[in-house]
Structure to design on (228 residues):
């Protein structure tokens, strides 16, 4: 059973505002990846954090930023929200130790109005 | 860059029947992993099955099996004895073998199991 938790589950923001989404990784996992899933689409890789450093980034502008904390939990920050940022944001945790799979949280549904 | 293509936006099948979902991909990598994920209405991505590209034997997990054709870059999922709980979105995904699980997903297939 996955131990990845995301908060909040739903969020409504106004265009131009800033938002912070949170993810607690599964115990023993040191890597967190963030994905954006627009309605009717597959998830798109935003970025990954490993040991508190960004470890790869997809095709997203700099207003998408993140943090990873010493306990391996993570935040996704989005500045200057646009209507197209409305999506399900998924967090996945994994480990670089051995052959482990990525476990996903239930996501945060962000609506920008 | 990798791309993953799922050409079946929607499928439906009667309960207890067998259904096959298609996936093709494009990559210049020689070693990689392929995955099928299930996303039910709860939104949480659940791993169904994984295939290592360097293994010629097709992966199986209970009622789920894959047909991996590396030369054709094809990776289909077969669900046998389908159950109502199999109703969900199914996503095919790819990661290079040293990609640290940075996944490239297809656009998904919505599967409905009909009672």
């Amino acid at each position: 059973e996955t131990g990845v938790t995301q908060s909040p589950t739903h969020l409504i923001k106004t265009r131009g505002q800033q938002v912070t989404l949170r993810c607690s990784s599964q115990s023993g996992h040191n890597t967190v990846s963030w994905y954006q899933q627009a309605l009717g689409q597959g998830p798109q890789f935003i970025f990954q954090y490993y040991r508190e450093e960004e470890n790869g980034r997809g095709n997203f502008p700099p207003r998408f930023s993140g943090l990873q904390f010493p306990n391996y939990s993570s935040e996704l920050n989005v500045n200057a929200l646009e209507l197209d940022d409305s999506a399900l944001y998924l967090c996945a945790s994994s480990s670089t130790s051995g052959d482990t799979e990525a476990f996903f949280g239930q996501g945060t549904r962000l609506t920008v109005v | 860059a990798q791309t993953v293509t799922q050409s079946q936006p929607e499928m439906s099948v009667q309960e207890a029947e067998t259904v096959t979902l298609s996936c093709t991909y494009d990559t210049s990598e020689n070693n990689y992993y392929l995955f099928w994920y299930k996303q039910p209405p709860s939104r949480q991505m659940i791993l169904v099955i994984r295939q290592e590209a360097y293994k010629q034997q097709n992966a199986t997990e209970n009622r789920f099996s894959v047909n991996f054709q590396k030369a054709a870059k094809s990776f289909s999922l077969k669900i046998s004895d389908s159950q109502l709980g199999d109703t969900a979105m199914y996503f095919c995904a790819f990661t290079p073998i040293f990609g640290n699980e940075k996944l490239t997903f297809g656009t998904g297939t919505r599967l409905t199991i009909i009672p």
